[in-house]
Design a protein that fits this description.
Structural class: alpha+beta
Number of strands: 22
Low-confidence stretches: 1-24, 800-808
Length: 808
């Protein structure tokens, strides 16, 4: 339960500017008069919006066919003739689910920036920027936004309230008294003053402070965290004559508390006898809210005036919050219990009620921690309209059409038997609708026999009309443009797919913006309350990129500066797998994604959530990240100092100079040194991760705090570059061998001659040239003679005839 803690001792516990009239018997008379006046303003004409909200809730919970609205009883069921079916459509729930899923896909975030140019503001901005995700988890913002989106879509409005919850856990800090000056303070304040009295500056001695009953005096301090509660418009009332949320100067938050709750809380037990408990509230908004848990899809006809439970008793609580006014410079908070006879709850010691606003910003100004978001803004009023309101008429049209179709199918589509008047028929079976039924009949006085009247099908035009109604409903809700994670058919280009995504989200631009701005204001309130009421130090376990855990410490003292909050860029729009895949494909087509680069390849697999397909590469990246985390611990240990290079002494004036300093010891000899280059490392991956880490904020901060870390990082980077250079170097050339040959060597061995000619790129001798001195014999001689005899005239002279030759 979220409680309101009182402001530290600088503020009085009693309500400011509230004067009890002299002689008045009721000390709360002035408080109740102011509460009654504020309640009349906040609840004026509220029924006009209650009927809209309840109708949307009924349609989502499958209670439709509503008739007239009664201010005291709510929506009445429509009066329909007996036997007329009343089917209901699930389109309202489907539309809410589609829009809700789209909002869930958008991961909201904030950027914290310093408001002034000083060290305190910069430190606060840096700390708050890192603390915001921690508070996001502590406040369970995933569940908060999930519930808030329901009210945001269905009712068109949601109010987020940020408060501090002690969670029922406290620490007890004893008080001590200074014997020198009598100053009484807690032991932690004495410890901060270095065991000296904060007032007189003397070392005491200090003795335990006692209360009037001689028991130790203790300071009970809550140990909790901020809590964010999404409130429906049924739980918050404010004057409607306000054009904007910032003009709302007061509101009333409503709750229903059970009698058991009052009996179990020590601060509230004294009010059990004074409060008139009942089974239901007299306030209409609370009655509607109490009935919601009992309106289910299977039993949606429970009226919006009863709770469905008759045993548990309770009481309505009304918490009045007012912004600072001349009468209440620090604002005002008041809580009363009961409807007809309200009782003011005095919780000054536990929660500081009644009293000023409990929360303050860095400058000490009162902080308003209620933040509103409207789904569809309507000019001139704070309250917006919901997603279902434009389609309410179409829901009714669709239900009436389905009722006509169902009624026609049950009454006219079934075949009927027609018989002449006065004719008697005996059915030889159980039912006249049984197939193959045999009937006996006696002719009527006018003759004739029974005839079958075939049923009539519903007109096919009604099917087209129903499809038209469904399309109009989707158009009114805006869900016909939402891709819902499905890839459209025949669409491959990224530009066309991105156009479809943007077209589907264009209608929700205002809702995205309103949701993001409300989240920004909620984050600011969480930081401010953490600064004021949070613990001095908060330790949070954080999952590191190497899938390990580290513990971050946040100090409340670092949140004293003034900062401003802005919505993080790109956090308002949903990021679907479909759009990311299309973007990667588009960049790949243009050459913007190089899958041969190990860093780019791993980033693509990470973006698509498929790193389990590359286990070896994933393990290499994780190993590099783990080495970096271990290095940050090792480099600040005393063992690292032994491996730093010694300081070079100044050069002497003598001409000879001094010998250079010896090289530093090799840190790889230390078994705890994380930057040891192992043979199984993928050097490219380890180098990429080292460079990315070296330019990160974490490494830059390490280099500032511990400059020697640069030496080890540079040394390891040099080893990685050297390893890459060795892998990229070309293989060495083969050694050359020289030989010395003489003419006699080549003449004696033809093989030596051929090797020499090949080495000098000279032609080898042909076989004919090689055997020129030896006349041909055998087959070679026959071939020689044939070639010579067949040579054409003029080429090679043929041998002359022996007779002719002899005659010459």
């Amino acid at each position: 339960m979220a409680t309101v803690l009182e402001r530290p001792a600088a503020f009085a516990n009693k309500a400011p500017a509230v004067v009890t009239p002299g002689g008045a018997k009721d000390p709360d008379k002035a408080l109740l008069e102011g509460y009654d006046r504020a309640k009349r303003e906040c609840f004026a004409d509220r029924w006009r919006y209650e009927r809209v909200w309840t109708k949307a809730l009924h349609y989502v919970n499958m209670r439709q066919w509503l008739g007239t609205y009664d201010r005291s009883r709510g929506w009445m069921d429509a009066r329909v003739a007996q036997g007329v079916p009343r089917p209901v459509t699930s389109k309202p729930k489907e539309g809410v689910q589609a829009i809700r899923a789209m909002f869930t896909a958008a991961t909201l975030g904030v950027d914290v920036r310093p408001l002034t140019n000083d060290v305190k503001s910069v430190t606060t901005a840096t700390t708050a920027d890192k603390l915001a995700p921690v508070l996001y988890t502590a406040n369970e913002m995933d569940l908060v936004l999930q519930e808030g989106d329901f009210w945001f879509i269905v009712c068109g409005n949601v109010i987020y309230h940020v408060s501090y919850d002690d969670d029922g856990r406290y620490i007890k800090v004893p008080f001590n008294v200074c014997a020198a000056c009598g100053y009484e303070t807690t032991v932690d304040e004495i410890a901060k003053a270095k065991q000296l009295c904060p007032q007189c500056g003397k070392p005491g001695p200090f003795t335990p402070a006692l209360k009037e009953d001689n028991t130790p005096k203790l300071d009970v301090r809550p140990q909790g965290h901020t809590v964010t509660t999404p409130l429906s418009p049924l739980e918050v009332a404010f004057p409607f004559m306000r054009p904007r949320w910032r003009d709302v100067d007061r509101l009333i938050r409503m709750r229903w508390r059970t009698k058991a709750y009052y009996e179990s809380h020590p601060a509230l037990q004294e009010y059990v006898s004074r409060i008139r408990f009942a089974k239901n509230s007299n306030e209409r908004s609370l009655q509607i809210f109490q009935s919601l848990p009992f309106q289910t899809e299977l039993n949606p006809n429970i009226g919006s005036g009863g709770t469905g439970s008759g045993d548990e008793e309770g009481v309505a609580e009304y918490e009045l919050w007012e912004k600072p006014t001349p009468a209440h410079p620090d604002g005002f908070v008041l809580r009363v219990a009961g409807d007809s006879n309200p009782v003011v709850l005095h919780l000054e010691d536990a929660e500081g009620l009644p009293g000023p606003l409990p929360y303050h910003d860095a400058k000490g100004d009162p902080l308003w921690t209620f933040h509103h978001a409207a789904y569809e803004h309507v000019g001139g009023r704070v309250l917006g309209s919901g997603a279902l309101e434009p389609a309410m008429g179409k829901f009714d049209q669709l239900n009436r059409l389905d009722s006509l179709v169902e009624m026609m199918m049950t009454r006219m589509a079934i075949p009927q038997i027609l018989k002449p008047k006065g004719q008697e028929i005996h059915w030889l079976g159980d039912s006249p609708a049984m197939p193959g039924l045999i009937a006996e009949y006696s002719p009527a006085p006018g003759g004739g026999k029974p005839e079958q009247w075939p049923g009539q099908d519903p007109p096919r035009a009604w099917v087209l009309l129903r499809e038209q109604f469904v399309e109009e409903i989707d158009a009114a809700l805006g869900t016909n443009d939402i891709l819902r994670g499905r890839k459209p058919p025949n669409v491959e280009a990224f530009s066309a797919m991105q156009l479809l995504v943007e077209a589907g989200e264009a209608r929700f631009a205002g809702a995205f913006k309103a949701r993001a701005l409300a989240f920004r204001d909620v984050s600011k309130s969480q930081i401010e309350i953490e600064r004021e009421f949070g613990p001095d130090t908060r330790v949070q376990a954080i999952v590191t990129p190497a899938r390990g855990y580290s513990f971050a410490t946040f100090a409340k003292a670092d949140l004293d500066g003034e900062v401003t909050f802005a919505v993080a860029d790109g956090s308002t729009k949903p990021k679907t797998q479909l759009a990311e895949r299309a973007s990667i494909e588009h960049l790949k087509q243009f050459g913007g994604v190089d899958m041969n680069d190990p860093d780019t390849k791993y980033a693509v697999y990470q973006k698509l959530g498929q790193t389990d397909l590359i286990p070896a590469t994933d393990n290499q990246h994780q190993c590099a990240l783990q080495n970096q985390e271990q290095f940050m611990t090792w480099v600040t240990s005393p063992a690292a100092k032994a491996f730093l290079p010694p300081m070079a002494p100044p050069a002497p004036a003598a001409a000879g100079g001094m010998a250079p300093p010896p090289p530093p010891p090799d840190p790889s000899t230390d078994p705890t040194y994380p930057f040891n280059l192992q043979p199984w490392y993928d050097v490219r991956i380890h180098r990429v991760e080292l460079v990315k880490w070296s330019v990160s904020d974490e490494a830059i901060d390490l280099f500032k705090r511990f400059p020697p870390a640069r030496y080890f990082v540079g040394k390891y980077l040099g080893e990685l570059d050297s390893k890459l250079a060795q892998a990229a170097a070309p293989p060495p050339e083969q050694p050359k061998v020289s030989y010395s040959f003489g003419a006699e060597d080549m003449a004696a061995d033809p093989a030596v001659r051929d090797v020499f000619l090949q080495a000098q790129n000279l032609p080898l001798p042909t076989p004919a040239a090689a055997g020129a001195g030896t006349p041909p014999q055998g087959a070679a001689l026959a071939m020689h003679n044939s070639n010579q005899n067949s040579a054409p005239v003029g080429n090679t002279p043929q041998p002359g005839s022996p007779a002719i030759t002899a005659g010459r």
